Amino acid sequence: MAIGEDTKLEELERIKGELRELMPLxxxxxxxxxxxxxxxxxxxxxxxxxxxxxxxxxKGFTQEELNKFLGAIKEPRYKLLFEYQAYLxxxxxxxxxxxxxxxxxxxxxxKVKTEKAHTLDVLLVPRFxxxxxxxxxxxxxxxxxxAQGYLFYTDKTRSHTDKPYFDLDxxxxxxxxxxxxxxxxxxxxxxxxxxxxxxxRRLHRLxxxxxxxxxxxxxxxxxxxxxxxxxxxxxxREVSSTQIYVHIPRDALFxxxxxxxxxxxxxxxxxxxxx
Length: 275
Prior knowledge:
Elements: H1 5-22, H2 28-48, H3 63-71, H4 76-88, H5 92-95, E1 103-104, E2 109-114, E3 119-124, H6 127-139, H7 141-146, H8 168-181, E4 187-190, E5 202-204, H9 208-222, H10 227-234, H11 239-245, H12 250-260, H13 263-270
Antiparallel strand pairs: 1-2, 2-3, 4-5
């Protein structure tokens, strides 16, 4: 008999409770051993799901694509939300929960609770985005107050959640709508599911996380490739994580290939004849 979802959740909570009591009693190497075990299982789980690496495919927006995408959005809440992702490289879970209390309107500073690192970071809001935010707040003061200060409040009459802010899945659907509307809904592959009768999923090049890719890449270019400064902007623990997000434009790559291997010189040296 299959174990019910409620039973699984109860078992998970029991195990988590036992781990909380046990962790302080374990030696450092035992904790590392446990961490390695969980990491190994997690890696194997995703490998079974059959996700392919996308190699040199740039999963970030180009400036042209971003302009096209943002230009199609007429609802101010959606546009400002996606702009915060693109220009401050916020994760979708972080941007949905932005609250008035996170801002210092005198210094343009924004406190961000970083999801993965579990830290509280401070970023400077670019001036154009800050001014846009001020106008947005002035025009929607009542709605934001009613939503407990959350900038990206829900419409209670149309919302399927009790949360005063946008649900992540809802924002992903909004994103996909505008991506399709602007003709940017590019699919680069499908999953290779190993579970019988499980439907393959299409892998989209552009997702909400692509806005974060754009922000980190754009910042890295602006600071001349300074990876440590970019790491701080991206709020990563490790430089290796930051490097994943820094994309080299295809035209720059192709130009470098031509420069590294001058066609005429190579053909001349090897006496290759092309007909």
